[in-house]
User: Fold dTDP-glucose 4,6-dehydratase from Ancylobacter amanitiformis.
Amino acid sequence: TSIAQRVLVTGGAGFIGSAVVRRLVRQGRTVLTYDKLTYAGNLASLAEVNDHPGYQFLKADICDGQAFRAALQEFRPDLVMHLAAESHVDRSIDGPGDFINTNIVGTYTLLDEALRYWRSLDASAQKRFRFHHISTDEVFGTLGEEGLFREDTPYQPNSPYSASKAASDHLVRAWFHTYGLPVVMSNCSNNYGPYHFPEKLIPLTILNALEGKPLPVYGKGENVRDWLYVDDHAAALERIATRGRLGESYNVGGNNERRNIDVVRTICAIMDRVMPDAAIGAREGLITFVTDRPGHDARYAIDATKLKDELGWEPSETFESGIEKTVRWYLDNGAWWEPLKARYDRARIGLA
Ligand code: NAD
Ligand code: TDX
Assistant:
């Protein structure tokens, strides 16, 4: 691994970013986490790497160009992996402003400074440098019952979140074509796994099921998502960042389409088996259908053939193995999620 020895990870204190940072540090790379620590950022997710000699943390905003310029000049990365974002669709509906700032203005700010930095490098360092922009399949909008998102599927974002991510993807593409900044891009389906903030469907369901609280399912629960275990995404990101073709985008997915109601029922069944509770009874009884998300996309599904054919990546977890691991991780790691409870109880949307 002579490439990507010094990696700057924006959003490295978040759910996916922390999985990427833990992976890269374990491999012996030198890593700087650049993160503002919003409600979604959590240094406890980086406890495993915190004292590692090859690891550093910087609390800073991606909208702060001076801070990012200084970080580039001091850390001198040969790879930037950009994961910092506002990520929760329901929050984007309630208040789009932070999404516009962080996801669009923040990405612009990083591109502007990355270009300045890249131009200042000598020829061999220029050749090594890459900027990897991490994005979502939600930019493609929604699918009917048939079909899969491909890299050339037209963009049709439907939420303030996905529109802001789509805008950021377009900016990254433009910096490649117009200025020659060496970029790679990827669009991934729904991630799940350890260290997932409990406002999202899977950890919310696990923790509410544990406590015998209602399990909110939007609409009829028939919306379909494709689920990918977070460490499988981190492995894909490493390949794309180091070996992906410049200027290209890669779709990443788990081949695990599930209706929301089936995801919730699966979690209930695992919880009933591994943590039976007579006072709660069968957890399916906790399912509560609530008002649907406005503009709720019906179905997401990914065609990840390009990533498999070009870079040889395939997920190693099935949904069944990954969800079992995830439930057990939450049951064993109360010390991680207990302090977040006040924040996730307030974050929960859809219940009166
Ligand atoms: P997350 O919300 O868990 O983490 C986001 C991180 O970014 C947090 O640590 C937060 O503190 C940081 N951050 C937010 N605003 C910032 C700012 N202005 N400056 C610096 N840091 C800031 O998100 P996640 O689920 O880990 O998602 C990471 C990336 O992957 C995002 O770009 C998201 O769009 C994308 N993505 C997520 C999923 C998913 O299922 N979670 C799927 C596909 C793509
Ligand atoms: O309480 C809930 N009940 C419910 O039915 C919540 C929180 C969600 N849902 C539904 C909405 C979605 O169809 O479950 C599905 C998953 O919802 P989220 O966990 O909020 O994820 P989603 O909106 O699909 O977006 C996620 O995947 C793509 C991430 O949050 C995004 O950052 C990523 O881009």
DSSP finds 13 helices and twelve strands in the chain. The pocket of nicotinamide-adenine-dinucleotide (ligand 1) is lined by residues 10-11, 13-17, 35-38, 40-41, 61-63, 83-87, 102, 106, 134-136, 165, 188, 190-191, 197 (CB under 6 Å).
